[in-house]
Amino acid sequence: MINFEYIRAASAKGAIDARTKNAASQFIAGGTNLVDLMKKGVTTPQRLIDINGLPLNTITHDAKGLTIGALVPNSAAADHELVKTKFPLLSMALNAGASAQLRNMATVGGNIMQRTRCSYFYDTTMPCNKRQPGSGCGAKDGYNRMHAIFGASDKCIAVHPSDMCVALAALNATVLVSGSKGDKKIPFADFHRLPGSTPELDNNLQPGELITGVHLPANNFNKYYYLKIRDRLSYAFALVSVAVALEVKDGVIKSAAMAMGGVAHKPWRLKEAEERLVSLAANKETIGQPLESIATAAMQGANTYAHNGYKVKLGKAAIREAVTRALFS
Ligand SMILES: Cc1cc2nc3c(=O)[nH]c(=O)nc-3n(C[C@H](O)[C@H](O)[C@H](O)COP(=O)(O)OP(=O)(O)OC[C@H]3O[C@@H](n4cnc5c(N)ncnc54)[C@H](O)[C@@H]3O)c2cc1C
What we know:
Blueprint: E1 5-8, H1 12-21, E2 25-28, H2 34-39, E3 47-50, E4 59-62, E5 65-69, H3 74-79, H4 81-86, H5 88-95, H6 100-105, H7 108-113, H8 119-122, H9 164-170, E6 174-179, E7 182-187, H10 188-191, E8 210-217, E9 223-229, E10 240-249, E11 252-261, E12 268-269, H11 271-277, H12 288-298, H13 310-328
Parallel strand pairs: 1-3, 2-3
Antiparallel strand pairs: 4-5, 5-8, 6-7, 6-8, 9-10, 10-11, 11-12
Helix pairs in contact: 5-9, 11-12, 12-13
Bound molecules: flavin-adenine dinucleotide.
């Protein structure tokens, strides 16, 4: 690891000013991603701005929804009574991530900002347009078993690794941001980017901006499931995941929200599938056929590489299974 300076921010303004003045600085929260990247030389900030002293660790609820501070640890968010009762999908997704120790350190803001786990991004001897723009993409013709099947570009086929973010995308969350120009709210769907020709940019946060929290709007969903398919049951990133939230009334699906993880550079919202679920009877005997057709359609347009073709079949099965579990388990 190279030498770096370390400062503790006493206020959000102080953190934002320090970050804005020094482009080679980075915020540090739980450090579970950033420190790994520094140790491997993937990122080499001159200065770390520790934001752990900022008052961004509360969870509040009102008629409009739930607000979770950026510094709330993933474990505290998952176990919070308001999250468990009002947004159980988020609890499920958080608990599917990493390990208990990591969830104790990892923060909500850091989870949103975590970088891809593409092995070519982590390996500084390999080309990677995300790490070093213009150097090429080692994954495209390399070992791409974990990589994207939707929304990739010829510059980058990495996926966003977060579980929490898949649930936040399905639940129409908003990212709360402060910067030198004031506060703003970014709809979750617009926060992360597809790689296009600028894969070095993971998201639309501007330099110096600080995530202060996320807001989840109140909803009528009463059935949920987060299904994560991975190589082992703990401490592994999703090969494919599906977050489903359904509103079922009088035996009929009235509204639906769904997103996938492990398939794209950002959580992949399944809008068409959501629309097609509405009005279906929540009936075990009759839903199989329409669900099969919805899951098949959702995977259309997938673009696979040498080692990740399995994700199409797996994704289809995961959609079917996640909806079935949400409805009947
Ligand atoms: C072994 C291992 C397994 C894991 N498995 C999973 C998994 O299965 N699923 C999953 O979802 N995640 C997994 N993770 C990732 C983990 O969830 C993230 O490392 C964690 O959420 C990052 O949060 P942090 O607070 O530690 O962020 P940090 O490491 O402190 O920061 C990460 C990035 O976010 C920026 N940042 C932090 N807070 C803010 C803020 N408030 N505003 C703006 N920028 C900010 C930092 O500058 C940095 O660039 C795993 C990690 C490890 C090490």
